Amino acid sequence: MARDYPTEPAPQRPRLTDAEAVSTTAAFADAMEQRRTIRDFTTDPVPLDVVRHAVRAAATAPSGANVQPWRFVVVTDSERKRLLRQGAEEEEQRFYEDRASQEWLDALAPIGTDWRKPFLEDAPVVIAVFEVHKGDDEPRPYYVKESVGIAVGILLTALHRAGLATLTHTPSPMKWINEVLERPAHERPYVLIPVGYAAADARVPAIRRKPLAEVLVEL
Asked: Global pTM?
């Protein structure tokens, strides 16, 4: 295949034996099965270098045309977190009282969520992830949601592997987040991720994940 763009050698990694590869992926899957969405956090601080390295890992995600259309805003300021909670609760209260269909509310009932979002203030860190669209100094991005979604998955995995608890929160609409975090209009909020340590008395819904046979198809 002819190429007329700059290239460089692909990184070479040691090739594992089949047994090593199976053992490695099995151990990783076992570790990730322990990941749960946490809504009750301690206020204990987390090492910001851990968060920075997790964002660095997230930024290795593939993206359409390598435009890398993401921005990660790490929020530790208590007043900004308070404003994030206030804005989210206002939108969520409207959602639960007026916007959500009964079918949607019924689906949420076993999880026990409501419009109250104290985790946005309690967690020592909140990461606001933005989609970066075309701006004065930004190129047109491609496959934005797919690209940012992959990056967020890597971010959550890295934070979990570091022993931190997370939650993904998507109040709707989210344009008000730009004002709270002083972000330009061409950056569009994608998700808020509280990061910290689970409270000692934290409880999670007794859910079960679908078994492998139900989600895997081999042809």
From this structure: 0.94
